[in-house]
Amino acid sequence: MQPPERWWPEELGDTPNSAGAANGARYAFFGEKRRLAVDTGDGTIRVYDTGAHRISGVSQASGTDRRMLFTSQHGDVELSTLKSA
After folding, report:
1. How far is residue 29's CA from residue 34's CA, in Å, rounded to a whole number?
2. What does 25-41 look like in DSSP terms, one character per residue?
3. Does residue 2 fall inside a structural domain?
4. What CA–CA distance (Å, rounded) separates 6 from 52?
């Protein structure tokens, strides 16, 4: 399987541990660096410190509530609870 085309900052590396998209937003998780890159659909890319979370999936509410919810080994994690890196 080929890695996704890179849209995240170069310093994160070439191959994320997990990556996906939902409702026009996309994410890439880099486990060794404990970083999550997120493009919420407006072209702005933000990077978050995931701490002990290993991100494996994403869901996003549609409609007016566009919050992103990530799946980790510790349960669901809201994007708003992660700190910017």
Report:
1. 8
2. EEEEEETTTTEEEEE-S
3. no
4. 24
Is residue 18 situated within a structural domain? yes
User: For residue 32, what are the domain limits?
Assistant: 10-84
Question: The whole model's pTM is what?
Answer: 0.85
3-class DSSP assignment, residue 59: strand
Helix ranges (DSSP H) in the chain: none
Q: Helix (H, G, I), strand (E, B), or coil: what is residue 69?
A: strand
Tokens found for residue 57: 């999936």
Give the SS3 label for residue 14. coil
Distance CA 54, CA 43 (A): 24
Tens of pLDDT, residue by residue over 39-52, are 988 889 999 999 99
Q: Looking at residue 80, what DSSP letter applies?
A: G
What would the two tokens of residue 42 be?
Answer: 């407006």
